[in-house]
């Protein structure tokens, strides 16, 4: 079956479908019929609308969900700044913590697990572009946590949608709209503003996050592929309604707002949504369900053929963010250099490895829990070892990537690297170029008897005069 053989069994139930309109109730009769905001909702609940897009967004893009809850989300005290001297995931708002825009290829050793912090305090911005206050751009994070969030704390990001790529451990996520269990080789998306709490049932966790400041993730258009393959809509899993009844316990609500942390007190649980209906919700996806497309003759398509989710810019076909994977797959092309070609890209490419070995980097430096960044027009491609193997390999059908899953966050934006990503984490491999591409050697050899063509005409010229229309190699006075 095209699913991951997880070592941790699933414990929740889900609804299926990407961007589908779902409805779910934990108590029968909690959802109103036909109306969204009845004068007296069932069981004394409150009506609340959660909008992920402008009210006037086109119907095809509009995202909203109606919640029926015990107390509305607004029932809390004022937010106050918290840890303002140390917590900042928006360096552009502090000039002395600016992003470093550099053309160098970068690669990081595996990031450390950290058993001392919870989910909220494990977030480290490695690179990014744009500004969440303008709802434009992206942030690329590493997280590494070792503790559950406090039993009476909840968190949300007002800055953007979190696309979470888990590399190690298990995430048990309680959201306002229901519960999700996320395991390695699964991804999870938690949209902007949705409140949640993260527990770690199997100890420390580690992984990557792409925060999208603008728009929302969608499935890529399939074009001539047709109506199926890549990530199929039915394989995305959405939580069902699940609520707690607690109206007399102090809770702390944490907000990431413009990269800074704020906290508010309330005397009830935020996880009190008894029923909901809409198309704005968290979801998860098993990467093993991705149906890969590839060449069955010669050459191979661009890596965009491996796109799971995309967020388009205002220019069709150009993504602010693509989430791309390189799953196990068959290579059968004839007379073809099968790894990715050497290339320079107008897009920025941030890569990570969940497990296994990436087939284009077999030299050993690209490891699970590590990362690489090839920024706008930074030249890159297979390392010297991989090039040598691929250039001389017998071109029989071969399956690559067995037991492996690499991924890429790709963006049309020029990505800046934070001080933490460049220096403080102490994971940057200083010898990345020396190991990967400097060992490449020229193989060019001019065949004996071959003449070198140049851009000069192969004719005997004469000195020209002003107005002479004959084609001559050059004209001198």
From TrEMBL:
Active site positions, chain numbering: 300
Enzyme class: oxidoreductase
Keywords of the record: Dioxygenase, Iron, Metal-binding, Oxidoreductase, Phenylalanine catabolism, Tyrosine catabolism
CDD domains associated with the record: cupin_HGO_N
EC number, as in UniProt: 1.13.11.5
Cofactor(s) annotated in UniProt: Fe cation
Gene3D superfamilies: Jelly Rolls (2.60.120.10)
GO MF term set: homogentisate 1,2-dioxygenase activity; metal ion binding
Domain of life: Eukaryota
Family in the record: Belongs to the homogentisate dioxygenase family.
PANTHER family: HOMOGENTISATE 1,2-DIOXYGENASE
Protein name (record): homogentisate 1,2-dioxygenase
């Amino acid at each position: 079956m095209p699913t991951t053989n997880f070592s941790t069994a699933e414990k929740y139930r889900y609804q299926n479908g990407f961007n589908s309109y779902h409805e779910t109730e934990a108590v029968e009769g909690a959802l109103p019929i036909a109306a969204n905001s009845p004068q007296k909702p069932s069981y004394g609940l409150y009506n609340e609308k959660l909008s992920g897009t402008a009210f006037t967004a086109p119907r095809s893009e509009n995202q909203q969900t109606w919640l029926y809850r015990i107390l509305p989300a607004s029932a809390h005290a004022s937010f106050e700044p918290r840890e303002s001297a140390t917590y900042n995931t928006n360096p552009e708002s502090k000039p002395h913590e600016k992003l470093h825009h550099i053309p160098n290829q970068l690669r990081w050793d595996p990031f450390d697990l950290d058993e001392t912090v919870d989910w909220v305090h494990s977030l480290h911005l490695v690179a990014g572009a744009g500004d969440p206050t303008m709802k434009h751009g992206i942030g690329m994070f590493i997280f590494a946590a070792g503790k559950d969030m406090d039993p009476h704390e909840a968190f949300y990001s007002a800055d953007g949608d979190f696309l979470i790529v888990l590399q190690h451990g298990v995430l048990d996520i309680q959201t306002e709209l229901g519960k999700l269990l996320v395991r390695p080789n699964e991804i999870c998306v938690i949209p902007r503003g949705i409140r949640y709490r993260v527990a770690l049932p199997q100890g420390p966790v580690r992984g990557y996050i792409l925060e999208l400041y603008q728009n929302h993730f969608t499935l890529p258009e399939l074009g001539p592929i047709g109506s199926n393959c890549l990530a199929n809509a039915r394989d995305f899993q959405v939580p069902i309604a699940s609520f707690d009844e607690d109206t007399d316990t102090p809770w702390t609500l944490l907000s990431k707002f413009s990269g800074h942390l704020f906290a508010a007190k309330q005397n009830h649980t935020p996880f009190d949504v008894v029923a909901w209906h809409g198309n704005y919700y968290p979801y998860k996806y098993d990467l093993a369900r991705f149906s890969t497309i590839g060449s069955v003759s010669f050459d191979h398509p661009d890596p965009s053929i491996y796109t799971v989710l995309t967020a388009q810019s205002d220019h069709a076909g150009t993504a602010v963010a693509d989430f791309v994977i390189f799953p196990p797959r068959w290579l059968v092309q004839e007379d073809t250099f099968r790894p990715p070609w050497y290339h320079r890209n107008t897009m920025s490419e941030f890569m990570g490895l969940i497990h296994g070995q990436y087939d284009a980097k077999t030299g050993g430096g690209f490891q699970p829990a590590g990362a690489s960044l090839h920024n706008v027009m930074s030249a890159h491609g297979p390392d010297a070892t991989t090039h040598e193997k691929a250039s001389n390999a017998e071109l029989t059908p071969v399956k690559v990537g067995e037991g492996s899953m690499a991924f890429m966050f790709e963006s049309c934006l020029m990505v800046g690297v934070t001080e933490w990503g460049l220096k403080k984490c102490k994971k940057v491999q200083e010898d990345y170029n020396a190991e990967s591409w400097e060992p490449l050697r020229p193989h060019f050899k001019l065949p004996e008897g071959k003449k070198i063509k140049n851009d000069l005409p192969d004719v005997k010229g004469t000195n020209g005069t002003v107005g002479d229309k004959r084609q001559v190699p050059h004209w001198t006075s």
